[in-house]
Structure formats: C-alpha cells, structure tokens
C-alpha cells in the first residue's frame, strides 16, 4: 500500500475528512503546512494538496513539493487550481452551478473519457458528480479521465510534465464531505483513497 500524506492547515473539514475512521487507514500522516519545511517528504509515496487550503503557505513550500514530485512521487491536487503551482495545466474558470440537478431535465455535462482506466474500478461517474470549479486544458499529453462535454478536463493524470505523477481535479470532495454535505463526495472518497493507496495510477 502506498504511503499517503496530506497537507493540513488546521481546517475543520480537512480534519474530519482525513481522520474519519474509514479513511484514516489510507492516510499515513497529516502534515501541518506551516511546518512542512521540517518534514522529510521522501518517506511518503503520495502527497495530497486539499482544496480550500492556505494558498500563500502552499506557494511558500512549492520548491519542496516540486522536489517530491520530481523524485518520481505522486502529487494529488484537489479543487480549483487557478494558481500556477503545477506545470502545463492551463486552468480556466467556469461558473459553478451548485443547483443544476434542480433544473428540469438536468444533466451534469460530465463524461468519462477513459472508462477503461483503473480509477473506474473504484468509482463511477455518478460518484464524481456534484459540481466543478473550472476546467483544465493540459499542454502535455495526459490521461484525461473526466471531462465536460465539448469543454475541458476536470480530472486528469499527468506523467509527462514532471518526473513524477500529477493528478489534478477541480472537484473538491474532502471539503464537502468534511463540511457534512454532498453525499456523492463520500462515495468519491470511498473509492478514490483506496485507489491512491492500492490502485494502478
């Protein structure tokens, strides 16, 4: 099983999501972001950068995070990534429709573009469907797993831009699960964390 660490800035939703008893077995350690420089990241295989995290603190530690990625490890960044923390992602803003499912004949607009990918042995498209915050137009060849129909990607795996593996999504499951709303986000985490730990990334 891969050893997963999570950047932690003290938010209640982060604490609830990553210390939940059913998820805790997949999380080796919560790394307090202000003290990240004192941590040897080499002991971990995967580093999760949660959504709704202190942006200046992440920016301050980018050199350390990039060194981890360039050592061949995996970085997962959740939520809108409008900062240029990671290369070649080309994020574009899109209006977030929080209540789309209340509209007559509602369609999320999300499509699986690689249904054969190993991730989808762990989650379904429905598990990844609540709302999204922007889209990506990656500049490198990537494995784009979920896209907006006739638009950009909202979840992709990039093995070209760095020496490691970069998994980017504009979904924010740990924020909503940790804030006690959006049932799909629990189903997403139920599959996504086991996939990060044991799946074929």
TrEMBL record:
This is ThuA-like domain-containing protein.
């Amino acid at each position: 099983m891969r050893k997963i660490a999570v950047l932690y800035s003290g938010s209640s939703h982060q604490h609830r999501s990553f210390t939940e008893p059913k998820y805790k077995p997949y999380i080796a350690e919560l790394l307090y972001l202000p003290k990240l420089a004192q941590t040897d990241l080499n002991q971990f295989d995967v580093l999760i950068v949660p959504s709704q995290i202190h942006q200046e603190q992440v920016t301050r530690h980018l050199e350390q995070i990039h060194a981890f990625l360039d050592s061949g490890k995996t970085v997962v960044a959740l939520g809108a990534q409008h900062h240029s923390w990671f290369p070649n992602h080309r994020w574009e803003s899109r209006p977030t429709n929080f209540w789309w499912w209340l509209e007559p004949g509602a369609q999320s607009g999300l499509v699986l573009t690689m249904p054969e990918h190993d991730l989808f042995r762990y989650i379904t498209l429905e598990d990844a469907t609540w709302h999204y915050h922007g889209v990506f137009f990656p500049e490198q060849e990537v494995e784009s797993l979920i896209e907006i129909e006739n638009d950009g990607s909202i979840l992709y795996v990039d093995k070209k831009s760095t020496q490691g593996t970069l998994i980017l999504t504009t979904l924010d499951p740990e924020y909503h699960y940790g804030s006690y709303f959006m049932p799909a986000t629990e189903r997403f985490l139920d599959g996504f964390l086991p996939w990060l730990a044991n799946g074929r990334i």
